[in-house]
Amino acid sequence: MNRTLDKLRRRGPRLALVASALLVAAGLSAPAALAADDYTQSVTQLSSTQLQLNFTPTTPALYVDVHYTGVPGVGQQNVRMVNGSGTWRTTVSGLSTGNTLDYWFTYEKSGPQYDTPHFSYTVGGSSTTVAAPTFSPPGGTYSAGQTVTISSATSGATIRYTVDGSTPTASSTLYSGPISVPNSRTVNAIALKSGSTTSAVSSATYTIGTQAGCPTQSDTPNFGPNVRIFDPGMSAATIQAQLDTDFNNQKDTLTAQMADRRVAHLFKPGTYNNVHDNVGFYTSVAGLGQNPGDVLINGDVTVDAFNASDNGVALQNFWRSAENMAVNPSGGNERWAVAQAAPFRRMDVRGGLQLYPASYGFASGGYIADTKVAGQAASVSQQQWYTRDSQLGSWNGGVWNMVFSGTSGAPATTFPNPPETTLATTPVSRDVPYLYVDGTGKYRVFLPSLRTNASGPSWANGSTPGTSAPMSQFYVVKSGDTAASINNALAAGCNLFFTPGVYHLNQTLNVTRANTTILGIGYPTLVPDNGVNAMQVSDVDGVRLKGLLFDAGTTNSQALLTVGQSGSSASHASNPTTVQDVFFRIGGAIAGKATNSLIVNSANTIIDHIWAWRADHGNAGTYGWNTNTADTGLVVNGANVTATGLFVEHYQKYQVIWNGQGGKTIFFQNEMPYDVPNQASWNAPSGVAGYAAYKVASNVTSHEAWGLGSYCFFDTNPAVSSYHAFEVPNTSGVRFHSLLSVSLNYRGTITHVINDTGGVTPSGTVPVNVVSYP
Where is the CBM56 domain (predicted)? Predict the structure, then answer.
């Protein structure tokens, strides 16, 4: 967030190497290996300038090729390895301390050829990290007990495991052969090797036997003390008093921004007169009708630069939302002056919509979806904005990057002057699950249908298409729940409804059942403790995640959220997993650490509005280059993944790494890290200065993106530079539209926008624009 304007079959072995190299050069890949126990691989450091790469296939191979990058001054190398007693070896020279080698293997197995995932090794580093264990069969639901094999791709590694859901340590049970899983349980494992860093924790949840489904929950649940439920029979004064009390608690940028207080305002169907809901931090405001018009607010739902300390700007107005209601604004215009992580969804604004503070100060949002605005939507001082599947009376304004898809009333594409980019439709979308009250007073969760080439709100011609599920199928998570109780509910077949609160997790939440819905209100915050990964979603159909904040714990997690297991390849085109209004924070409230925030391995996943943020400010002692450490915000390995509304900021390496084929991004906003101490700390493995904000892997042959901005503000050391903001393969199937880079207050520079195209960022906080690439 910018606060700185205010301050992938070969015929024979002889042809295999050439064919393999051509495949790689063309960005095509052979089928991925079915299991990591096909092989082991390792690196031996021979000297300060030489490494030996080792690959031992389980089934004897006719050939093994290795591909690598990272030798200074040398491009990608594709080498036939030498077989010695079943282990294939190659020596890499020309390295020096600090160089990072990125490498992967192509190997023959019983005729077909396979590719491995990528691995990396840093020369002279203190240690390598042991590959995390994998499970065969994977976690899931089985009619009978299973015999489970656990393995690590790291040669010589030992494995320790637990079966009670606890986090394994070096003193946990030693894995020595397949283990029996006779009944439902979660197996966690780590891999260790002397001289190397212990792997991340891997988890697999096994549900054994025929399941009756979720034990019946209440259809009129107790949502706990942090959920306010209003109905039209209440007096306006009573409602307003509660709204004002909550706002006063959640208002202040200096004290409430990193506090633990969470709240939701839910309005039952009906009309509410003279209601004015000023929306503070960690506050969700939503109507409980099946459609937006079922709840009418004659009044306001407002976000502004509320505090004297804001100095008239809205650059820190994070973590608040409005959803599923009609508003007849008291002054003719609704005001929603926000920055990141503040979605405005399923709203019927019967007037205008002002997306800037009353002071006309800067704002750094934002996101609208499935919404109607009868009048003009005005961004004015908003630096960037994305509007999806909506209907506007008109649009006015824009500073750097205004993007629209499937939105009537949106301006034509005129980027860069004005800086507006419009797609007639959204290629694939699915609106969020939401809570509502039916005609009998029972609570249900509506599950909208998948849309392709959508335009306009899903409810424009009546009710949103879809199905609904009763709350009897949802386990309501509230204060006192633990990772164990939540996992038990998931294993029993329940969906989850998270109420506002902060939830510490001492084990990974394992989502293994297809079509599981996990819905949060009031910014429920999941904090992984002791280095566990917060949540793992299996490679299954139709999981919906909405309304969660993942806040990294003080012991490093390998990932906060992972969708699909590594190597996932099933198609989910007809029923994808959706990740919507899901936010990630590293530092700020606590000194959090996580190598990656979101890893997407499942094909066809829809990422619809995320903000992954490594904090640049917050509580004392919670942020700094060596404090809140985090490599990458988003890693996409799955094929045909779509991102609509992608905000990723301040990570210490690549902000986004896209390895999957067929990806699409509509709108991307990024700031590089503010606190880079010096250039040597921030040079990419390729040897160029800095890490690109958005990197598409060299083997990718199909990817398209629209409306992307990356900004630098190297405040700690303005001498730092980045060679480019976007790094992509030069191939006709990889296409980018409407890109820009900016140096904020001329603190550091970005030399090119994309690859070698686009000039160096000038002074004056002036964008460098590229209309299309290539």
Answer: 29-123
* 195 token code pair: 């001289």
Q: Classify residue 213 as left (phi > 0), alpha (psi -120 to 50) or beta.
A: left
Structure tokens at 317: 């107005």
Q: Is 323 part of the annotated catalytic residue set?
A: no
CB 534 within 8 A of CB 526: yes
Q: Are strands 158-162 and 185-192 parallel, antiparallel or unpaired?
A: antiparallel
Handedness of CA 710, 715, 717, 719 (dihedral sign): positive
Q: pLDDT tens, 90-149?
A: 999 999 888 999 898 999 888 788 888 888 899 886 556 777 888 888 776 676 678 888
Residue with tokens 């499937």: 406
pLDDT tens readout for residues 530-587: 999 999 999 999 999 999 999 999 999 999 999 999 999 999 999 999 999 999 999 9
Give the CA radius of gyration of the chain.
26
The Cα–Cα gap between 152 and 730 comes to 35
**Cα(712)–Cα(674) distance, rounded to whole angstroms?**
7
In the Cβ-directed half-sphere of 595, how many Cα atoms lie within 13 Å? 13
Q: What does the DSSP assignment read for 75-105?
A: --EEEE-EEETTEEEEEE-S--TT-EEEEEE
**What amino acid is encoded at 387 in this protein?**
T
Maximum Cα–Cα distance across the chain = 83
Name the residue type at position 112: P
d(CA 51, CA 485): 47
Q: Are 186 and 510 in contact (CB under 8 A)?
A: yes
